[in-house]
Amino acid sequence: MTTDVHLLGATNGSVPTVEDLDALLMAQRKAYLSEGPPSVEVRRDRLDRLVLMLTESADAFTEALNEDFGNRSEVASLLADVAGILPEISGTRRKLKSWMRPDVIRSTMLAGVPTIVEKRPLGVVGVIGPWNFPVSLTTQPAATALAAGNRVMIKFSEVTPNTAEVFASAVARRFPVDEMAVVNGGPEVGAAFSGLPFDHLFFTGSPEVGALVARSAAKNLVPTTLELGGKNPAVVSESADVMTAAERIMAARLVNGGQLCLCPDYVFVPRARVTEFVEAAKAVAQKTAAAHGGAGIVSIINDKNFERVNGLIEDARAHGVDVRQVPAPGGIVRRIPPTILLGVNDQMRVAREEVFGPVLSVFPYDDIDTVVTYISARPSPLAAYWYGEKDGDFDEFRRRVASGGMTVNDFAMHCGIHVAPFGGVGQSGWGSYHGKTGFDTLSHHRAITTSRLPISMADMLTPPYSSAMARGVRAYVGLHKRRAARRLARHR
Questions:
Q1: How far apart are CA 22 and CA 308, in angstroms?
Q2: Measuring CA to CA, how many Å separate 294 from each of 2, 70, 298?
Q3: Are 192 and 183 in contact (CB under 8 A)?
């Protein structure tokens, strides 16, 4: 391995070239092929080093994140970017041996052909992380890839350059570059990275960039997992405690300054309860904005996004929307006050674009069919929320609305249950991870069958075919034809 490749895995201020990236990939692939599938002990060692990398650099991460965002509290960063992913890594370490064990296919029909399914590493997995939770949402898929026995190359987000610098140095202290390495750089580096012939590419980010990543990966037939976003709906049902629902929905809208792909973008409220909902939501926003002199509020990440979110609000205002904003303490860079919009329609940008800011649109409704029709006519969101009883209206909502996941009476809990699959559907992404689902996603399930039969499959499929074979095949097809016809007749 060359010196340049070693430096690329750390952080030396230089921008990696396509040749650098190719060399790093080749170094990781060579190491993987030389080692073969690592043992459970090796994988656990890598996970332990990953946990140590996270925890020993926790203070450096929180400082860098605060600098990158302009204002992000230490507690918020520790919770979201360090502590929050530790339970999944610990659970993966604990379950790893059983996940690695080959499955035995059991069937009396297969007695003569015993079959096992082994879980093999894919090889080298690329991970492209986002800027909103850059440490956790980069480390999480990397941990899954290591658990599955892979080598990992990471492209860290250039939107958070200080955190990228700290992260690259932290990884380099605990991992050789042929095991796990971090690549930093701008969009041109990201484009080159997504075009590498990985064995799998994991991307977290916007649907727009996700489409570019998928297109680039497809040139090398690289399978991808895309964790994207979307306009997540919330529904306050007739059976809900409106005050509680309003408090939880507005609090959810303000998480990380609204810069979270799981935040609710809009909410349907029974028409007669809209005023009650709005007043309760405003009270929560005021309490949150005033806490610690406003120091706990997360700034919008940069000027570009600050102007974009403000542009959505002003476009809505220009179209006659009733804009309710909660006063917030000053002195915080790129601060957008918590905002509630009433009277939004499809002519406005805020109805079509994912907000990624502290803005909540409120829609009145009279019946659940109106709600379901509106949501299901739009691209499938990453999350859907229901507040109230799991009654007939809920059953209709759950049955007809497609979403990556769903939480009832709370925020993002379906993502927090790390043993459950997490992922999008349609424009909110494809593929799932977390827990065993992630392990399976980043493993190849290879079937191995041993024949103990007195006859050969090759002989059966090669001419000449006997008359007995021809009669047997026709009889088999005819049997299934009659069975299907009888079943259909019974249900007519």
A1: 36
A2: 50, 13, 9
A3: no
User: What residue has token string 């309860």?
Assistant: 273
430 contacts 230 by C-beta, under 8 angstroms:
no
Say whether pTM exceeds 0.90: yes
Q: In sequence order, which residues have a C-beta less than 8 Å from that of residue 170 and are 6 or more positions away?
A: 53, 54, 56, 57, 60, 61
Angle, CA of 266, 268 and 274, to the nearest 5°: 110
> Which secondary structure element, helix H or strand E, spans residue 423, and what is its range?
strand 422-423
| DSSP type of residue 464 | P
Distance separating alpha carbons of residues 4 and 26, to the nearest angstrom: 13
Closest by CA position to 93, among listed 35, 144, 150: 144
Sheet holding 124-128, edge to edge: 180-183, 151-155, 124-128, 200-204, 224-227, 429-430
What lies within 8 Å, CB to CB, of 221 at 6+ separation is none
Query: Residue 221, CB half-sphere, CA atoms under 13 Å: how many?
Result: 0
Identity of the residue numbered 434: H
Strands, sheet with 103-105, edge to edge from the N-terminal-most edge strand: 103-105, 115-121, 443-449
- The pLDDT tens digits for 149-176 are 999 999 999 999 999 999 999 999 999 9
Catalytic residues: 227, 261
Per-position b or e across 387-424, b if 16+ CB within 10 A of its CB: bbeeeebbeebeeebebbbbbbbebbebbbebeebbbb
For residue 378, give both structure tokens. 């739009």
Q: What is the C-alpha to C-alpha distance for residues 294 and 330, in angstroms, rounded to an integer?
A: 8
Q: Check: CB of residue 399 under 8 Å from CB of residue 390.
A: no
CA distance 442 to 224: 10
CA–CA gap between residue 24 and residue 154 (Å, rounded):
11
Residue pLDDT, tens place only, 27-67: 999 999 999 999 999 999 999 999 999 999 999 999 999 99
Cα distances (angstroms) measured from residue 251 to each of 254, 261, 297:
5, 15, 12
The structure tokens listed for 403 are 């979403």
278: DSSP letter: H
Helix, strand and coil content of the chain, in percent to the nearest 5, comes to: 50, 15, 35
